[in-house]
Amino acid sequence: MRRAHLLGLGFMTPALIIVFLFFLAPVVLTAVFSFTSMSSGTGISGGAYEINEQTLRSLTDRGFPKAKSEKLGHDLYRIGEEGLGAVEADFGKAFADEIRAELSGELFEGRRDLERELKKLRSRPRSIRDLKKAADLFKRSVLNTRFESETAFLDGVGETGVELTADDQAVLVKTAYTGWSWTTANYELITSMASTWRAAKNTAFYVLLTLSFNVGFGLFLAITTFYLPKGQAAIFRAIWILPRILPPVLYVMMWKWLTWDTGFLSIFLSNFGVEPRNWMLNSDINAWVCIVLINGFVGASLGMILFSSALRAIPPSMLAASEVDGANRWQQIRHILLPQLQWPILFTTSYQTLSLLTSFDYIYLSTDGGPGRSTEVWALYTFHTALNNYGGVLQYGLGAALALVLVVIGIAASLFYLRLFKFNELVSQPRIEQ
Amino acid sequence: MRILLDQFTKTFGATTVIDKMSLDIESGEMLALLGPSGCGKSTTLFAICGIHRMNGGRLLFGERDVTHLPSQMRNVGVVFQNYALYPHMNAFDNIAFPLMIRKMAKPEIERKVLAIAELVHIEGLLKRKPAQLSGGQQQRVALARALVREPDILLLDEPLANLDAKLRLEMRSEIRRIQQETGISAVLVTHDQVEAMSMADRIAIMDQGQIVQLAAPKDMYDEPVTDFVASFLGNPPIAFLQGTVEGKTIRLENSDIVLPLDAQAAKQGNGTPIRIGVRPEHFQPEHPVKISGKISFIEEQGREELFDVTLSNGMRLRSVQANGGAFRLGDEVSWGLAADKVLTFDPSGRRI
Amino acid sequence: MSSNFRSWPMTLLLGFLSLPIIVMMVYLFVDTVTDTTAGSLIPDRFTLEHWRFLFDAPQAGRSNIWSVTLNTFIFACSTSAIVVMTSLTSGYALSRLNMPYRRLLLGGVLTLHAFPTVTLIISIFLMLQMTGLYNSLLGVILVKTALELPLGIWVMKGFYDTVPWEIEMAGLTDGASRFTVWRRLVLPQVHPGLAALGLFSFLAAWSEYILPQVLAPDGASQVLATYLQNLIKDDRAPDFNMFKSVGLFYAMPVMIIYLIFNQKLMNIYGGGTKG
């Protein structure tokens, strides 16, 4: 490898590391997570095995013999090496040795039984309290104890002396497992749930409307400001760039001020006898109008910038010539301005399709999918499912599956753009061959 | 220093741009690489300075084989077409840059920069940024930067192309003067034959990746080896006539014009097609081998006049005359060729 | 543009269409220094009490505005710095250096540039939780940097592309190594691009809401975006005058930077295009 190769790769390294960690890894992990049942209930680190009151209840529901589950709930006292070690540490070797000699391997159903036996020993501690303490050291309970592996769990259960059939064991292990597991249920859910389809429909509707608004209004702004005197054009452009540059939180807050029931529009219109209402959320139609305008103003700003700079590239002599030739304004727009904008329009359209498809921040900040879930688009639905669900559990696995759909669309679209915008022509060979 | 390019081959992807070209630049000479764009002259220059790698052949600087050395270790000085001055440095720092890279001591750098600045006449401009310099001044700074490290060879890539006509004339002689004063071997890449003729000791004329002819300007002008060379040199350019050998004469195509050019005709067998090249200065009223036609174009150039004369078969000859004021457009004239100066070529373009 | 056509009807139309934005902007400023209620067009008395939040001790459960501002500042500056430094080298490599997989890398950057990054937020959220970077400003900085990086590299590559090759060739024949050529000769030519990209990624991070909200919702690493949104969500009876004061305080750097560097930033909006 030549030295410039090393320099090049060296120069790329920081970027490659970041890209690997925050693009490639997440893409792969999204796919991986989508096949799990991860949720805020299961946690994300590997699971553990634990029997608690709730487990016991659901065990009975699943046909686990009641007698056995009751027994699992009780404390047991078994004289084993572990307990003996603890006794030796706390109460001396003599006492421990004596217990080992007299009681090794025995099992007691209650503490009282064990205490009675201990009292018989010569080297026992004098105080009753210490005796109870010593007895406690032999307590073995599976209730509320975390076992990190299945074998440890079954060993623990075995110590209680509960006899398990193979069926019992399977039910017990499954019920006691607190972590996530591998599953394809997420994809079955996606195709079967009505809310998914509604989200998909909302998304299509949202992208179509907003995109038309973005491009149409962006064009309108670019062309009108193009014809205005310089000063005026600059003012209007400055106004219309604001939605794009203001932080989304502030921008949406201003819309809320405009549209809420105590906001500008309500109170201003009440002067004319219109009843105050929440113009953003009081009906589905209003919510959609707001969403399209909020996103559309931002998108139109961008369109305006791109289109305006394309229009500036038109040589003034060409416009003058068309006017000399007698073109009216509409003909000039139709035959001179629009052809110049062909490429930027294609670019904006394709680019914004993808970003609208996956963006949700402005919707999240404004209607949050409401009223009801009538403006919940796919990306927001994904977000709600996995990360921002007030109602209940955050379903990471299902969310990841929903996100993966977007990831796949994103990759496909990006590759398509590479073709569309002639990537091959962008790659020119370096002119220095070192 | 003598520079030897031996069997140089260059490919870009699957296309071979230059195939086994050899070139010998003598110590202290200025050699011009002349040719139309795309002929491979810039590629050759980039190979000599090490920007491009050679796909075959050797490159020797004196006795030193530099074929596989990177640019940085070759000790070449290059003046680029757009000068490539470093815009953020003033003229002094630009010139000092190669020395600074070599970690030369400050006083030494200063001494050398001042000396070279004096040679190229920019002593007063050293504090200026490139943007504050005129084209000619930038050119001088670029020359100074290329020369200050005392390179083995000076490479000039279309050095005059970005200058206006008047400056071009001035810089032409300036570059030549500086090159001769320093006694450095130099390669001048240009597509302008006037530049090559006026500045170079020898010209290598290139076409499609090959050197067609390598000779001193005067020799090349008088004795071109092909019609390509003949047409490339000279302004106004040479005119060509198609004909066939008939005994000791040459009959022009589609006509009954027969030229008694026995010296040229004798070299070829009867009936062979032949191409005659006539330079404008060799087609004059007083010359012996007469040929008649009608004046179809006159261009007044002040000091002299340029005539196009169309023959009866539609072929055209050109003539440059110092004071031909008497002729008018459309005049029938019968002017003569200088028989011993006429150049003849076979159908493949080779000189007979 | 062209004097052959009348322009006042268009001015009128545009003015009318711009009303929502004009109204919102005007009252954004007015409401922070008056007690004007929404809907009454005439501002009433002048007051600075909506700006109390800057000096009062924060209410229970809220963070101190200055520590939040500091967080935001750290977030935006670090993001900007890392994006700029990383793009500086990668952009050059992609623009100028021969290296293996150059085509692939170039295509990769373009693909990522078009790639919708929000789709990755779930797995990033889980990754940060696993690595312990969850709820830390550092995590948010790294993620935001990564998301801004493809654009940064592409923009920087564009700026490098405009530097004449001959400057580098001259540098090489002058005896400088590729690295020296880059540092001493090429870097000074792309300063304007550097500044523009730095400002751009600063603004992008300054305005970012979703990432800090999801990846560091805790009080200690709160930024102005989440601070403001929490205010808005919290309040039963919205005090828009206060929201706007906080909002204006938050947006002030954005507006100032935009006012001063308008032209520079446009270069990137034009070439960059996200959203």
TrEMBL record, chain A:
<dbReference type="Pfam" id="PF00528">
    <property type="entry name" value="BPD_transp_1"/>
</dbReference>
<feature type="transmembrane region" description="Helical">
    <location>
        <begin position="396"/>
        <end position="418"/>
    </location>
</feature>
<keyword id="KW-0812">Transmembrane</keyword>
<keyword id="KW-0813">Transport</keyword>
<dbReference type="InterPro" id="IPR051393">
    <property type="entry name" value="ABC_transporter_permease"/>
</dbReference>
<feature type="transmembrane region" description="Helical">
    <location>
        <begin position="285"/>
        <end position="307"/>
    </location>
</feature>
<keyword id="KW-1003">Cell membrane</keyword>
<dbReference type="GO" id="GO:0055085">
    <property type="term" value="P:transmembrane transport"/>
</dbReference>
<feature type="domain" description="ABC transmembrane type-1">
    <location>
        <begin position="200"/>
        <end position="417"/>
    </location>
</feature>
<comment type="similarity">
    <text>Belongs to the binding-protein-dependent transport system permease family.</text>
</comment>
<keyword id="KW-0472">Membrane</keyword>
<protein>
    <submittedName>
        <fullName>Sugar ABC transporter permease</fullName>
    </submittedName>
</protein>
<dbReference type="InterPro" id="IPR035906">
    <property type="entry name" value="MetI-like_sf"/>
</dbReference>
<dbReference type="GO" id="GO:0005886">
    <property type="term" value="C:plasma membrane"/>
</dbReference>
<feature type="transmembrane region" description="Helical">
    <location>
        <begin position="249"/>
        <end position="273"/>
    </location>
</feature>
From TrEMBL, chain B:
<dbReference type="GO" id="GO:0055052">
    <property type="term" value="C:ATP-binding cassette (ABC) transporter complex, substrate-binding subunit-containing"/>
</dbReference>
<feature type="domain" description="ABC transporter">
    <location>
        <begin position="3"/>
        <end position="233"/>
    </location>
</feature>
<keyword id="KW-0067">ATP-binding</keyword>
<comment type="similarity">
    <text>Belongs to the ABC transporter superfamily.</text>
</comment>
<dbReference type="InterPro" id="IPR015855">
    <property type="entry name" value="ABC_transpr_MalK-like"/>
</dbReference>
<dbReference type="InterPro" id="IPR017871">
    <property type="entry name" value="ABC_transporter-like_CS"/>
</dbReference>
<keyword id="KW-1278">Translocase</keyword>
<dbReference type="InterPro" id="IPR003593">
    <property type="entry name" value="AAA+_ATPase"/>
</dbReference>
<keyword id="KW-0472">Membrane</keyword>
<dbReference type="InterPro" id="IPR003439">
    <property type="entry name" value="ABC_transporter-like_ATP-bd"/>
</dbReference>
<dbReference type="InterPro" id="IPR012340">
    <property type="entry name" value="NA-bd_OB-fold"/>
</dbReference>
<dbReference type="InterPro" id="IPR008995">
    <property type="entry name" value="Mo/tungstate-bd_C_term_dom"/>
</dbReference>
<dbReference type="Pfam" id="PF17912">
    <property type="entry name" value="OB_MalK"/>
</dbReference>
<dbReference type="GO" id="GO:0005524">
    <property type="term" value="F:ATP binding"/>
</dbReference>
<protein>
    <submittedName>
        <fullName>ABC transporter ATP-binding protein</fullName>
    </submittedName>
</protein>
UniProtKB/TrEMBL annotation, chain C:
<keyword id="KW-1133">Transmembrane helix</keyword>
<feature type="transmembrane region" description="Helical">
    <location>
        <begin position="104"/>
        <end position="128"/>
    </location>
</feature>
<keyword id="KW-0762">Sugar transport</keyword>
<dbReference type="GO" id="GO:0005886">
    <property type="term" value="C:plasma membrane"/>
</dbReference>
<feature type="transmembrane region" description="Helical">
    <location>
        <begin position="12"/>
        <end position="30"/>
    </location>
</feature>
<comment type="function">
    <text>Part of the ABC transporter complex MalEFGK involved in maltose/maltodextrin import. Probably responsible for the translocation of the substrate across the membrane.</text>
</comment>
<feature type="transmembrane region" description="Helical">
    <location>
        <begin position="73"/>
        <end position="92"/>
    </location>
</feature>
<dbReference type="InterPro" id="IPR035906">
    <property type="entry name" value="MetI-like_sf"/>
</dbReference>
<feature type="transmembrane region" description="Helical">
    <location>
        <begin position="134"/>
        <end position="155"/>
    </location>
</feature>
<keyword id="KW-0813">Transport</keyword>
<protein>
    <recommendedName>
        <fullName>Maltose/maltodextrin transport system permease protein MalG</fullName>
    </recommendedName>
</protein>
<feature type="domain" description="ABC transmembrane type-1">
    <location>
        <begin position="69"/>
        <end position="261"/>
    </location>
</feature>
<keyword id="KW-1003">Cell membrane</keyword>
<keyword id="KW-0812">Transmembrane</keyword>
<comment type="similarity">
    <text>Belongs to the binding-protein-dependent transport system permease family. MalFG subfamily.</text>
</comment>
